[in-house]
């Protein structure tokens, strides 16, 4: 039996990788109707890669049952219209169970959140991802890297053992470090996704990325798609025009250690009447003054 080549999955990573929000109902549960409507809006807007249970989806604030629900809702709503990259993480047995659930529901890939542990050894990082990747050899596996100390050679060693490790969501805010890491890992071997969204996409594309993640895409799919089209064509001036358009929105998300990363996106959606603004602790609602600014930005975008 030949091993999978993951061509479809690789192509899906070289794109706008949308991280959908998880809307909550008034009683605090996952608002399934709003969730489906928001997913439908992304798909109708031209998005073709979805990451349920990403950070913009409040992965760490969801229960195991809710994470499974979000996975199932996303796969059902997308059907054949998108490739699904499910976020998994926590301890190894939990991550493996989530990855197998994603596979059984019809997902094509899993994104492995950075190990949440105060003591991460380089070899231990590889062991963690190897255990997950070996449990689902049919799925493409995408490590989510936020650890600036990690060596590119460790990723190469992991992929030697696990050929289903096909892409990387790189989210260290240092374009030079990304360029070096990607080359140490073997640039052509993986699909490199700029994991810090639109603000970092132009610089990371110049160093070898071919996709980027986005939370902003929930609000204005056309804005994110305009940026990737410019980057694909080598039109960095055009990409930077989009960058200027989204700069303030992303500055509000990044302020205070990204405290309001999800909050700003949900506030924009709420201002457009698309879902409730509520987020779960440790995130928090915006003060009134910033709510008005976010609403003005969202209203000004061509959606």
TrEMBL record:
UniProt keyword terms in alphabetical order: Lyase
Keyword Lyase among record annotations: yes
InterPro entries: Aldolase_TIM (IPR013785), DapA-like (IPR002220)
Transcription found in the keyword field: no
Pfam families noted in UniProt: DHDPS
Annotated family: Belongs to the DapA family.
Protein name: Dihydrodipicolinate synthase family protein
Source organism: Streptomyces xiangluensis
């Amino acid at each position: 039996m030949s091993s999978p080549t993951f061509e479809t999955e690789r192509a899906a990573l070289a794109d706008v990788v949308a991280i959908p929000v998880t809307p909550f109902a008034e009683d605090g549960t996952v608002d399934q109707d709003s969730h489906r409507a928001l997913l439908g809006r992304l798909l109708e807007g031209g998005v073709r890669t979805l990451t349920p249970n990403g950070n913009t989806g409040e992965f760490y604030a969801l229960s195991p049952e809710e994470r499974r629900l979000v996975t199932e809702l996303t796969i059902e709503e997308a059907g054949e219209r998108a490739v699904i990259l499910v976020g998994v993480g926590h301890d190894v047995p939990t991550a493996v169970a989530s990855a197998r659930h994603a596979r059984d529901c019809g997902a094509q890939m899993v994104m492995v959140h950075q190990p949440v542990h105060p003591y991460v050894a380089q070899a231990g990082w590889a062991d963690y991802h190897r255990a997950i990747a070996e449990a689902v050899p049919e799925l493409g596996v995408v490590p989510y890297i936020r650890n600036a100390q990690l060596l590119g050679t460790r990723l190469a060693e992991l992929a030697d053992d696990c050929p289903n490790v096909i892409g990387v969501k790189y989210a260290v805010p240092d374009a030079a470090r990304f360029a070096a890491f990607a080359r140490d890992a073997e640039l052509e071997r993986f699909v490199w996704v700029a994991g810090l969204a639109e603000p970092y996409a132009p610089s990371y594309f110049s160093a070898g990325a071919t996709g980027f993640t986005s939370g902003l895409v929930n609000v204005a799919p056309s804005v994110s798609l305009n940026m990737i089209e410019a980057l694909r064509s080598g039109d960095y001036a055009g990409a930077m025009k989009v960058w200027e358009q989204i700069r303030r929105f992303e500055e509000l998300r990044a302020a205070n250690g990204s405290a309001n990363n999800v909050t700003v996106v949900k506030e924009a959606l709420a201002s457009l009447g698309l879902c409730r603004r509520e987020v779960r602790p440790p995130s928090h609602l915006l003060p009134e003054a910033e709510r008005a600014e976010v609403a003005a930005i969202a209203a000004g975008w061509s959606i």
